[in-house]
Structure formats: C-alpha cells, structure tokens
C-alpha cells in the first residue's frame, strides 16, 4: 500500500484535535519516559545526520595529503612515413628513404593521484599510474612540485610506492584504516586529480565489498558510487574517521566517465603490500603450492560435503609446502590459519597475506571427514623465479572478471553437461556474472566460443592471449562469435576501464 508523503494543513489540524483523554494519556507516558526517550531520539537523529551535513572539515584536513602525479614516458613510434616521390636514382631517394625508415620517439605524459603516508615523503599510488615512466613529478595541494623515485611496485595488486624529498617542508600524511570494518552503505569520500583538475573531492557510499573484477589473483575491491574518473587512479578513499580504507583504481563505464560504479583496492590488502615494498623493494607473499578450483553444488554432492564452499585441490606442486604437509588432490580446503574459506578465490589472497615461513593450520575435508594439517609456507616469488609454478598443470579454467565470464576447455564432462560434441577442440562459457558486461550482451553458460575477432578459437590459452592482447592494446572491448543451439552470433563485450 502506498502512503502519501505529503501532509496537508487540514490533516495536521485533525491530528492535533485529539480528545482530552488521549492527550492526557500521552502526557502521562511522556512524563514517565520523556527524558530518556528524548535523549535516545536525539542520539538517533544526531547519528543519522552527523555524516551527511557536510564533508568540509574532513576535506580540509585530508586534502593536503593527497598529491597529483605527473609522469613522462618515452614512446617509440614506427618509421615508414609518407615521403615525397623522387625519380629512381635521384640523390635524394636514398636520403629520404633512410629518413622515412628511421623510428622516432616522443614523450607521452599522463596524470594520476596518490597520497602521502609518511612525512618523510612516502607516497602510495597505483602501479599503472607510474608504469614505464622515466620521470615522475609529485605536486602537492599548494602546487609545490618534487621529483619522485619508485621504491617498489606490484603489478598483481596494482600498487606502487614512491619517495620524494620534502626538503624540510611541513607536509601532511594520512594513515591506513581497517577496510574489514566497512559496511555496505557506509559513507566514503574520495580525493583525487580527475581529468587533471586536481584537488577534487567526491563522496558516496560503499556499494559492495569483496568485488572480483578480474584485475589480478588477489582482487578484493570496494565498490563505491563516489564519483571516480580518469585521473583518480591511485587516490585515496577515506572513511568518515579520515582513514584511508581504499585506493581508487578502476571504473566501470562504457563512455569513459563516471556512472556511479568505481572500485578501490581495500586498505587491508594494500597495507601489507605497501609495508613489504617499503621494507624489501618487492613483495614477499606466502605460498602454499596447490592448484585449486571452485566447489560447485555437483562437486559438493559427489564428495559428500554439506555445502558448496571451500577450495578444491586439483593438483599439488611437487616439493612445495602443501606436498610436504601431505595435502592431496581431491582435498577441500575449508579453513586456512583460522580463516574460513567461503569461496575458492578467498584462498590465494589469504595465503598471500600470510607471512613467509609461518606455520599454519589448514583444515580440509578428505573422504567426507574433516582433518587439520600443519603447513610451513614458502615464498611465492621464490617459487616463481625457480620455475615451480610453470608446467605443473594445464590451465583448464579461466576467469575474465573485467568482462564478466569464465570459460573452460571443452571436455567430456562439460560436453555432457551442456549437450555439446565432446570430440571438438572448443572453449565453452561456464559462468556469467549477473550485471556484468558479458551478461548485458546476453552471453550464457554453455555458449561455445567459435571465433575471437576473426580468428578461430580452439584452446583456452588462445582465447586468454587474445583477450590480454586486446586489453593491453587499449581496445575498449572484444568481439566474439559464439554458438548456441547450433546458431552463431557475434557479441561485443566492453572492458571495465582503469580510471587513469
């Protein structure tokens, strides 16, 4: 039932002309509970309005800690320019031919944001803001500028730490907050350098937490409707206590402008990476040494598990920490170091955040029984450099989170599930995220990807490379030919965009 929000003067008068008995009853109750009730109501109203009246004091306090970052990159341009035509054998022919084939270089500039976390001149930003930069300049809110150098950067989480010499200047620094305390609906404030305008403050709420947008293996993004645009990359997302609870990183937009869907790296993920980059100049992540996959309802039922949760071990790296601890393929990891594993993608992030050489309890389900194993973690970077992560297992499942779908190489099990020809070399869509670009274009689980662009798709690795190349070349999206129920049709799917 709809209730009118508008109350007329006549209605007000009718409500105030209650009989004396009713008024007397209300008076007695207010006399009994009036003081306490008034106090409680005042507190509730005050709390409801405290964070929405103005952000001015917070913005004034925090803005000096937010910096604009300008980078200069040398870009090679190809030769083969159009040249004047000369008669064969002319003395100018060889000169201009050599001139035309000679490559040129040009300087490209880009703008981003960052924030100071130490008054000695330590700045946090996104890796993609300073990647390949030959010169980095920091601009403070008072327009003072300083040359900066890179302390360390991490492409997997898109975080970089810079240092500049404040030369004795009195600068403002901010500190990291606890993003785990955030609730959907909490107010947040972003400060950054959108479109090079500098010192821009926007506000909104936390729209969602724990978003996976396919940016990397440790995605833990805060989604917000605070306006984030190109140039906001690397800037801070503050809570109402003035703590940094996120690093603004990406937007979802088909136009390049803000549409109210922005993503920030959670501060709890960022803090450990920042600390490691400052201390070591690189990351030192925990390493378990397993390959995992999602526990579906069907898998849970076949394994005798009550709920589809945890991470199913599909392969164990020989000689790795898990192998030493006697983990096996088929084990379902339901808890790691006391932290519950609700979804498969929780495990890599939690393991990476755990100290190298730490001894942790790993709770698993094996043969329908729970058991706990103790594992001494290794270092992921050493395993990568030592080649322990290559050629252990074919990548038979891939998530393209910024497009909104997952795909797998077609096998007999998938062919039976979707009623497809098991004998063909094909890639099949296995999951589509609701509300994602893929979902909006009508992609469905069971669709067979026939072509990517103009090339026929026969393997998952081929599709993954095509998508990676398209993303790195700056294209706005991908074009795929899919087959559904014997009918072919093209779908154009847009990438989520970085907000630099």
Describe this entry's structure for a reader.
- This protein is α+β, with helices and mostly antiparallel strands and 500 residues long.
- The protein folds into 4 domains: 62-78 and 93-164, Trypsin-like serine proteases (Thrombin, subunit H, Beta Barrel), CATH 2.40.10.10; 179-280, Beta Barrel (Thrombin, subunit H), CATH 2.40.10.10; 287-375, Roll (Pdz3 Domain), CATH 2.30.42.10; 397-498, PDZ domain (Pdz3 Domain), CATH 2.30.42.10.
- The chain is 25% helix and 34% strand.
- The protein is built from 13 helices and 28 strands.
- The strands form 5 sheets. Strands 21, 22, 23, 24, 25, 26 and 27 form a 7-stranded antiparallel beta sheet that branches.
- The longest helix is centred in the first third of the chain and has 31 residues, at 20-50.
- The two termini are 47 Å apart.
In short:
By secondary structure, the protein is α+β, with helices and mostly antiparallel strands. Helices cover 25% and strands 34% of the residues.
For the record, the count of structural domains works out to 4
Coarse morphology? globular
Q: Proportion of β residues?
A: 25-35%
* CATH architecture identity of the largest domain: Beta Barrel
Largest sheet: 7 strands, antiparallel
CATH superfamily of the largest domain: Trypsin-like serine proteases
Helical percentage: 10-25%
């Amino acid at each position: 039932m709809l209730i009118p929000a508008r109350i007329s003067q006549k209605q007000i008068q009718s409500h105030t002309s209650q009989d004396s008995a009713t008024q007397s009853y209300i008076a007695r109750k207010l006399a009994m509970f009036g003081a306490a009730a008034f106090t409680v109501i005042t507190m509730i109203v005050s709390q409801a309005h405290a964070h929405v009246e103005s952000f001015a004091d917070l913005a004034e306090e925090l803005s000096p800690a937010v910096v604009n970052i300008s980078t200069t990159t040398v870009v090679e341009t190809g030769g083969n320019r159009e040249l004047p035509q000369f008669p064969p054998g002319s003395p100018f022919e060889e000169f201009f031919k050599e001139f035309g084939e000679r490559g040129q270089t040009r300087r490209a500039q880009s703008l981003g944001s960052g924030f100071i976390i130490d008054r000695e001149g330590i700045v946090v930003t996104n890796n993609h803001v300073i990647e390949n930069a030959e010169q980095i300049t920091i601009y403070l809110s008072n327009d003072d500028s300083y040359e900066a150098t890179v302390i360390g950067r991490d492409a997997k989480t898109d975080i970089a730490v810079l240092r500049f010499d404040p030369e004795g200047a009195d600068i403002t620094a901010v500190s990291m907050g606890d993003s785990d305390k955030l609730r959907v609906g909490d107010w947040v404030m972003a400060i950054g350098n959108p479109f090079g305008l500098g010192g821009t403050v926007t506000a909104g709420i936390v729209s969602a937490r724990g978003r996976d947008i396919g940016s990397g293996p440790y995605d833990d993004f805060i989604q917000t409707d605070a306006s984030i645009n190109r140039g906001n990359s690397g800037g801070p997302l503050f809570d109402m206590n003035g703590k940094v609870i996120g690093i603004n990183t990406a937007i979802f937009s088909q136009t390049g402008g803000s549409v109210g869907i922005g993503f920030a790296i959670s501060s709890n993920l960022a803090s450990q990476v920042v600390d490691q980059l400052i201390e070591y100049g690189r990351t030192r992540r925990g390493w378990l040494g397993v390959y995992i996959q999602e526990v579906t309802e069907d898998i849970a039922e076949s394994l005798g598990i009550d709920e589809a949760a945890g991470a199913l071990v599909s392969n164990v790296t020989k000689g790795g920490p898990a192998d030493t601890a006697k983990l096996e393929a088929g084990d379902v990891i339901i808890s790691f170091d006391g932290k519950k594993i609700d979804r498969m993608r929780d495990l890599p992030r939690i393991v990476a955040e755990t100290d190298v050489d730490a001894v942790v309890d790993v709770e698993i389900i094996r043969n329908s029984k729970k058991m706990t194993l103790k594992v001494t973690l290794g270092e992921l970077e050493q395993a990568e450099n030592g080649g322990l992560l290559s050629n252990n297992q074919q990548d038979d499942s891939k998530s393209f989170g910024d497009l909104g779908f997952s795909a797998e190489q077609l096998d007999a099990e998938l062919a039976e599930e979707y009623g497809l020809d098991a004998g063909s070399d094909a890639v099949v869509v296995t999951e589509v995220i609701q509300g994602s670009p893929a979902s909006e274009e009508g992609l469905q689980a069971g669709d067979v990807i026939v072509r990517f662009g103009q090339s026929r798709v026969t393997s998952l690795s081929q599709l993954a490379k095509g998508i990676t190349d398209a993303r790195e070349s700056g294209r706005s999206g991908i074009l795929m030919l899919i087959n559904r129920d014997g009918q072919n049709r093209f779908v154009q799917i847009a990438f989520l965009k970085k907000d630099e």
